[in-house]
């Protein structure tokens, strides 16, 4: 979800939706971010992330994936452009200045991977880009730009992990994301939902000069306490920003709630099974 790498996506008209960024970051942290925990766990297990790991997290958001790596003993650096999400990441990982000084193996950097370079960090053995691509036009190109800055910080043979949405027929949420595409239609050329393509991750890796070294699929169901939580969580990904720009918050909330109705159970909870894919590639 996104992104960050999960990030607010302004339309190509130059307009951006008016949203409470602090509230959105909190919704991401409290509702949506945990949906990808099975993906984080599968990747860390496969790569044996532990005390010997130096990990660079691109689009680290509010830091849950970093926290999971730290719990396994890894040294981590998280990079993101969202100051509101990074504030939550610091609360999790560096709750005060004293802890920041006593945890030199944990860094939180606002901006681009080049900012991490300015801290003197380099020689990463794992680079993760956990925001799934394959939903927004141009997201693969954006990831390629991030990798262009990040890869010089990685050691030879380092693992680079790219993540993407699975096939639309395996992702229930894709039917809901079509609402975003429909509402954003007036902004022709705007970033909007697109069907996932089979080789999205491989194309990004090839353009970055990486060597593929295996892939996997992980079930990441989206489960919410109620429809309101689902709407807030899904909007926190930024995938509905073009729709909000083209219409307004009220219209998006209304149509999103209607699209979620088939997935709402008798007790009011919302359950949407999804499959995500990851690719492990190596720095030559």
Automatic annotation (TrEMBL):
Signal peptide: none annotated. GO terms for molecular function: methyltransferase activity. Keywords: Methyltransferase, Transferase. It is an enzyme of class 2 (transferase). Pfam families: Methyltransf_11. GO terms for biological process: methylation. Residues 95-104 have a biased composition (Basic and acidic residues). Its EC number is 2.1.1.-. Coiled coil: none annotated. Residues 56-96 form the Methyltransferase type domain. Residues 95-114 are annotated as: Disordered. This is Class I SAM-dependent methyltransferase. It comes from Streptomyces lusitanus.
């Amino acid at each position: 979800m996104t992104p960050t790498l999960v990030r607010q996506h302004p339309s190509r008209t130059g307009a951006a939706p008016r949203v409470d960024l602090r509230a959105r970051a909190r919704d991401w942290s409290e509702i949506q971010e945990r949906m990808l925990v099975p993906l984080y766990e599968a990747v860390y297990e496969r790569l044996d992330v532990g005390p010997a790991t130096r990990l660079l997290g691109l689009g680290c958001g509010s830091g849950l994936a970093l926290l999971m790596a730290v719990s396994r003993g890894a040294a981590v650096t998280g990079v993101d452009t969202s100051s509101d999400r990074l504030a939550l990441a610091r609360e999790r990982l560096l709750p005060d200045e004293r802890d920041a000084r006593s945890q030199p193996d944990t860094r939180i950097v606002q901006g681009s991977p080049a900012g991490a370079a300015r801290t003197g960090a380099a020689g990463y053995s794992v680079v993760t880009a956990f925001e799934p691509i394959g939903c927004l036009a141009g997201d693969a190109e954006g990831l390629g730009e991030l990798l262009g800055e990040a890869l010089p910080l990685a050691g030879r043979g380092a693992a680079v992990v790219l993540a993407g949405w699975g096939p639309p027929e395996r992702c229930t949420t894709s039917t809901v994301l079509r609402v975003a595409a429909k509402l954003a239609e007036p902004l022709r050329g705007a970033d909007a939902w697109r069907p996932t393509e089979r080789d999205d991750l491989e194309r990004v890796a090839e353009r970055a000069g990486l060597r593929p070294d295996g892939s996997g699929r992980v079930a990441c169901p989206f489960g919410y306490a109620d429809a309101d939580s689902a709407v807030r969580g899904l909007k926190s990904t930024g995938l509905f920003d073009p729709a909000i720009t083209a219409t307004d918050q009220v219209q998006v909330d209304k149509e999103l709630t209607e699209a979620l109705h088939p997935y709402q159970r008798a007790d009011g909870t919302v359950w949407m099974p999804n499959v995500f894919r990851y690719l492990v590639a190596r720095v030559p």
